[in-house]
Specification:
The structure is a single chain. By secondary structure, the protein is mainly beta. The protein folds into 5 domains: 124 residues, Immunoglobulin-like (Sandwich), CATH 2.60.40.1120; 160 residues, Carboxypeptidase-like, regulatory domain (Immunoglobulin-like), CATH 2.60.40; 90 residues, Carboxypeptidase-like, regulatory domain (Immunoglobulin-like); 91 residues; 97 residues, Immunoglobulins (Immunoglobulin-like). 5% of the residues lie in helices and 47% in strands. The protein contains 4 helices and 45 strands. Strand 26 and strand 27 form a beta hairpin. The protein is globular.
């Protein structure tokens, strides 16, 4: 560089305008009040939390159906997979006038939630007990006022449990259960669990309003302790109303496991004059004394109500045994670790449970089984370090079931291949990402996720691990503006009929992805007024409703607007509810009553459609 050039550089540097620091962002604030439902009176000492909301990093196909990431169902199920992606939070407590104030908020999107003992949690914009709150978008310097959160008081159920002789039962497990919708039928889930005291009395409190089935399970006096994991306010299935209840039992010191008998169940044998032996067990009973939910009496809990006299009479029931042997697909003996007994009808009193088995034998036995249809999931070891698993179905009628043979196989895998349309570009620097999910199609098995597979795929060819040979449903999360056109496995149409696997095979799971997905936008209104925070569901035509991946859900924004993307071409209906139980749209009977309330729409390849639909009020 010449001296003249250096001089010119120094002169320009001296005269350059110094860079000014960025102006600080003006803080924002949110101010509001918490009131009691029905009366409107202010509530003090309420904990209110404002939490920054960020976009979730969880693929939509990690849940068992296609939903919008902003929908309530996404939050319900994702909570059991990974914590929600949230930012900083502030917490305030309402004063005597029920008011709260959050200051110094940076611009962004926030959720607002109120909690107080004795009340159901409340979110801003929540419509009804089944709804989810709306987010609040805050701009720099904005002062948001007039926010109102309404809290509904919980109810109480009181009662007593006695045996057939009228004697009180202490330490009986009491469960308040609700029927919820699932993709295939309805299932009972536990909302709250308590134990009876020494007089056989129980008290279920802070129950959200709704219909409940109350069950009592007598304890085994050989138990030292029985513990229950209570429902969390935002459970894995239907917050804040439900969650999975996990029960465990610890036996008296020195007794240890009793092979062949479910934990907590006491089986009594009685010899008849002809030499036969019958067995009875104190099994769960629904109020007032029913062995199944279908014949039980439900209890309606209204906000703040106290319902007494819900007394339950237990009685021993005839039970039977299932005996059999586990064999290996390779002919090698398999030592049984345990058997999981799974009722195919989740509304019966019989509950899913692991039944320990003698680890040195290939035979298994399960005592204390009520009549009904079951799955048997057997796990064991074919050799040290070589696990094996098998699955079978069995029906128990009026006698024990003998000689059940279950074939167990080591884990295996199948090959998969993804074909992309010619217009889908996949630059080497940023390959497309897919998530392939396989879930066993086992009605009544609430933990089918345990046997399922989630696989992130970034190449055309991939390998899927398989735990048990059975029937599976396959879903694929695809990149934006694409959809799954077909999935085939040999001669099987997997999209329509599901995937049946007998064992290790040379067949390939062929997935074809199309770049021609459709898009749908629309508005929801009631009496010509746009309706915010409505639950909107895109439902496929009647002939395709077994393909649950075709369903999509979302919520309308503050202007009553909604958007669906990545839609396969075809005929659909759009339904919009003010308040609806999650997953009710999968139930044929529920939909039959409102089928004419949906708005028909035809989605064409690569097209953007627009509709107006009317709200279905609660």
């Amino acid at each position: 560089m010449t001296m003249a050039a250096i001089a010119m550089f120094l002169l320009l540097a001296q005269n350059a305008t110094p860079q000014q620091p960025a102006a600080p962002t003006a803080p924002a604030s949110i101010e509001g009040v918490v009131v009691k439902a029905l009366t409107g009176e202010s509530l003090s000492k309420v904990t209110v939390a404002v939490t920054e909301v960020r976009s979730s990093n969880i693929p939509a196909t990690n849940i068992p159906f296609a939903v919008d990431p902003n929908s309530p169902e996404f939050a319900l199920v994702v909570s059991s997979i990974n914590p929600r992606n949230t930012g900083t939070s502030q917490v305030a407590t309402t004063a005597s006038d029920g008011k709260f104030l959050f200051e110094n908020l940076k611009p962004g999107t926030y959720s607002l939630k109120a909690t107080l003992g004795g009340y159901s949690p409340s979110e801003y914009g929540q419509r009804g007990p089944n709804g989810r709150g709306m987010n609040i978008t805050v701009k720099a310097g904005q002062k948001i006022q007039g926010i109102s959160l309404t809290m509904t008081p919980g109810g109480t159920i009181l009662g007593r449990v006695a045996d057939a002789n009228g004697d009180p039962l202490s330490r009986a497990l009491i469960q308040a259960q609700k029927l919820i919708y699932q993709e295939r039928g309805r299932s009972l889930v536990t909302v709250q669990a308590v134990y009876t005291d020494d007089r056989g009395d129980y008290r279920l409190f802070w129950l959200p309003a709704g219909q409940y089935y109350i069950s009592a399970t007598p304890s085994d006096e050989r138990m030292r302790t029985m513990t229950a994991m209570p429902a969390s306010p935002n459970g894995t299935i239907l917050p804040p109303l439900t969650s999975n209840t996990v029960l465990s039992a610890v036996r008296d010191m020195g007794i240890g496991f009793i092979y062949g008998i479910p934990s907590g169940l006491k089986v009594n044998g009685q010899s008849l004059s002809n030499g036969d032996v019958i067995e009875e067990a104190a099994v769960p009973v629904f109020y007032p004394s029913a062995s199944e939910q279908s014949t039980a009496t439900s209890v309606e809990v209204r906000p703040g109500a106290i319902i007494s006299g819900i007394d339950i009479t237990t009685k021993p029931a005839r039970v039977y045994r299932i005996r059999g042997r586990i064999i290996s697909s390779t002919g090698r003996p398999v030592s049984v670790a345990d058997v999981t007994l799974v009722p195919r009808n989740s509304q019966t009193a019989m509950r899913m449970g692991r039944v320990p088995q003698a680890p040195t034998s290939s035979d298994f036995e399960i005592a204390g089984v009520l009549p009904g249809s079951y799955y048997l999931l057997v796990t064991g070891m074919e050799a040290p370090g070589m696990p094996a698993a098998g699955l079978a179905s069995v029906d128990v009628q009026a006698s024990s079931v003998e000689n059940v043979i279950i074939t167990a196989s080591p884990p295996f895998s199948i090959q998969g291949h993804i074909s992309r349309g010619s217009t889908i570009s996949t630059p080497a620097a940023s390959p497309q990402s897919y998530v392939v999910r396989m879930e066993p199609q086992l009605t009544g098995l609430p933990n089918a996720m345990v046997l399922g597979t989630n696989l992130s795929v970034r190449q055309d060819n991939f390998t899927l691990p398989i735990s048990v040979a059975t029937d599976y449903r396959v879903t694929v999360a695809t990149p934006p503006n694409t959809y799954v056109q077909s999935i085939r496995f040999g001669g099987q149409d997997v999209l329509h009929d599901g995937l049946h696997i007998d064992g290790a095979t040379s067949e390939t799971l062929e997935i074809v992805v199309s770049p021609s997905a459709g898009r749908l936008e629309g508005n929801v209104s009631l009496d010509r007024q746009k309706f915010a925070n409505a639950t909107v569901v895109l439902v496929p035509s009647s002939s395709l409703r077994q393909q649950t991946s075709l369903y999509q859900t979302t919520q309308t924004n503050t202007e009553g607007h909604f958007t669906f993307e990545n839609i396969p071409p075809g005929s659909y209906k759009v339904f919009a509810w003010e308040d609806v139980e999650p997953l009710a749209w999968f139930d044929a009977e529920f939909m039959r009553n409102i089928e004419n309330r949906g708005t028909e729409v035809l989605i064409r390849e690569s097209a953007k459609e627009s509709i107006e639909t009317t709200l279905i009020p609660r």
